[in-house]
Hints:
Blueprint: E1 19-22, E2 30-35, H1 42-45, E3 57-62, E4 66-69, E5 75-78, H2 85-106, E6 112-117, H3 119-131, E7 137-141, E8 161-167, H4 175-187, E9 191-197, H5 205-216
Parallel strand pairs: 2-3, 2-6, 6-7, 7-8, 8-9
Antiparallel strand pairs: 1-3, 4-5
Amino acid sequence: MHLCAEMRHTVEIKRKAHYYTQKPAKEPRSILYVLHGYGQLAEEFIKEFHFLRESSTIVVAPEAISKFYNKERKAVANWMTSHERIDEIDDYINFLNSVHEEIRSQHEKLPIAVLGFSQGVSTAFRWMCESKLDVDVVFTCSGTIPPELTLSDFSSLKETPCYYYFGNRDKLLLPEKALKQIELLRNVGLNITQCEYEGRHEISEITAKDIKVFSQSY
């Protein structure tokens, strides 16, 4: 008779998570959330948006909770893996909601833009769809759409302008795969603007230009 069985249990714990902000030189009139990619750190990623330092846009860069060492033995962050993926998704959505609540407590009613880069694209869409975040514009950079999201999940974003950027020399997201992602987003009813640029896996100058337009609109 078999008396011993392995059982899986789950407990919720409190832990510290971090985010970085870049305050503008002018009176804040809009908020830009920027979600980094796999193997990056928010502290470094937020530097990509130094071009907004003289604007009126607050930049908020949450840092993924999971950490690991890359090939250079540098500690970096990761939004999720396939192991216990549902719990990891729940955890980072709760974290992003907490960041948003804190930012909103300081800056009420400001227009919001969300930018996801690489792995941060899936993170951004899960967050926006799950939390029904009231977003004015979405910047989608070189990433993929979460496969589990359905047509109804995107209902809150159907009136939101969404820009999808991809490089013609991106080895991590080939242009043909990027075009398929754009087709998926159109199929769920999103208002997509396709933006191909000359370059690799990066935040492009075209992306920066469109972000400036958003910033100057308020």
